[in-house]
TrEMBL record, chain A:
One of its GO terms (molecular function) is ATP binding. Coiled coil: none annotated. The keyword NADP does not apply. Residues 6-258 form the ABC transporter domain. It comes from Micromonospora gifhornensis. Keywords: ATP-binding, Nucleotide-binding, Transport. Pfam families: ABC_tran, oligo_HPY. The keyword Transport applies. This is ABC transporter ATP-binding protein. Belongs to the ABC transporter superfamily.
Automatic annotation (TrEMBL), chain B:
It is a peripheral membrane protein. Belongs to the ABC transporter superfamily. The keyword Iron-sulfur does not apply. InterPro entries: AAA+_ATPase, ABC_Ni/Peptide_Import, ABC_transporter-like_ATP-bd, ABC_transporter-like_CS, Oligopep_ABC_C, P-loop_NTPase. It is found in: Cell membrane. This is ABC transporter ATP-binding protein. It comes from Micromonospora gifhornensis.
Amino acid sequence: MSDYVLETRDLVKHFPLTQGIVFKKQIGAVRAVDGVNLQLRRGETLGVVGESGCGKSTLARMLVGLETPTSGDLFVQGRNMAKVGAEERRRGRRNIQLVMQDPYTSLNPRMTVGDIIGEPFEVHPDVVPKGQRRRKVQELLELVGLNPEHINRYPHQFSGGQRQRIGIARALALNPEIILCDEPVSALDVSIQAQVINLLEKLQNELGLSYIFIAHDLSVVRHIADRVAVMYLGKIVEIGTEDEIYETPTHPYTQALLSAVPVPDPTLRGQRDQIVLTGDVPSPANPPSGCRFRTRCWKAQDICAEQEPLLEVRDKSGHPSACHFAEVRDVVHATE
Amino acid sequence: MSTDVNVKLDALPGLDPNALPLEVKNLQVEFRTRNGIAHAVNGVSFDVRAGETRAILGESGCGKSVTAQAIMGILDSPPGFITGGEILYRGVDLLKLPEAQRRKVRANRIAMIFQDALSALNPVFTVGFQLAELFRKHRGMSRQDAKARAVELLDLVKIPAAKQRVNDYPHQFSGGMRQRVMIAMALALDPEVLIADEPTTALDVTVQAQIMALLAELQQERNMALVLITHDMGVVADVADRISVMYAGRVIEEAGVNDIYASPAHPYTKGLLESIPRLDLKGQELSAIKGLPPALTNIPPGCAFNPRCRYAQDVCRQNPGPPLYQVTPSRTSACHFWREVKGDE
């Protein structure tokens, strides 16, 4: 267990749906995350992909302690975060920091950059002594490629890419071991995106960080991740190394997702095995019985409605997949 | 079905049925703001033929959406002003038409799909009402007939149970379904030109695939000219015939889709293509374009891309900026060093 810097066991988050104003009664629950098991090794990047509403952001919020899990356990460096005292939990949080999606709303417009990056030191005063905080903030700015003299500027004086660097500097302030990136580049333009991805990779090498990288852009995840988990409606449907997921996907949803990504190569037009799914993602308040993907799956049979497929290794591909009929299908033609 | 309107449109002065459905020539748009004049579009030219897909590719702030708004005549003015150029629909300069005639062209002949369907649809009217409104205002149909046409349209864009859903409000639809409603609305009056401004950017990839397939099918059926405005190099590679790449309000490269991806002739296009994560470069550093796009109030002299360009020399910093060089008969590039960029694989 101590091999992992972070581990979740059957992590569940249900948001109650209530009716009535005075006498509230629960009429159901949105099953945002419904039993997720993840392990993160030291120095590794775990990519989490899935479409909007699949629970990836709720998962991120639970991992950093912004949401309390409905049930299940979260271990950070071997300690069960639900069972430790308030003081230890506060200290534990130091090790896992979040980089948020939207650099335009996640920085307080009324605070200077120095105050934003230095704020973690007020919550955790013992990390850096008071007199040296300003210098530490300037070091952080330099580390993420910003001019340390800009410490007194406000967020609106920076561009989107620079703001995301400020968000990264803030996440690094407490010397964490794990950084959780929740769609860190999806709000940025392509040319800026590459700069931020390069920065994240550089920081990982220099500081030995472990990343959980949540994104819907599959090519970005492929570039940065060592292992990838695919989520659908609150559950992990397939998990494996980057090669296993992209080269030999076995779950129909993973295959459809990969085939739907447009490839920036016009010579492949019409030659790719494109799977166009019908319909939309069902509501997580009322997920289908059995396999949650069966309503959109072309392989679905009676057993899929009756029995929920477990996330386990079924075929020779050698990685776990939650499908009764898991089999390898080559959907991404290698472009040499 | 649309004969009565076509009669009126035939009366447009100088209408030439054999001319291209849309041709933009040297369009210039500026925004007069408190912080100075922002030159959003600085001489953009492109055309699109019937049945063809023209992609306009560029990052945020490059002027691609402003170009679309100028074509549709929905530019916020003030602060936006069209200061020069022509927008030709079958030979008729739309910028010279009185508003009443312009309005007949809009939606009838040239229609537009917006990026964010939730904010483009009116939340307080049902989807059916908003669709039927088009037929009532532009075709003079009765409420009942117009409603029947609205149901047909929802069927056309493959919305299940169209007959019931026609009475739903926009918030009752999912993101993909709302975008389908937008497409239905744009196609309602059978336009010849469809401008799609980032039609799938707000959608998930599996839904994006559905919407792009639907658009391609409808375009082929109607032999429609499609102007696809996007920043997604993958989508462009999948559907476009010809591409105009924009940077700081100018078209800096224009070519057929295969040429651009095989051998870009402008350093910006090349940089964009290289900054996409690729399979064979896994584990290596991505080649990013350094720096930031310029502020439109303060575009650098000469070539607007020169501060970020690895090919830049003194000539690039001098006004006037590079002209559009003819790379081959069918493609152009606004770079003094297009030979080096193109040859240097």
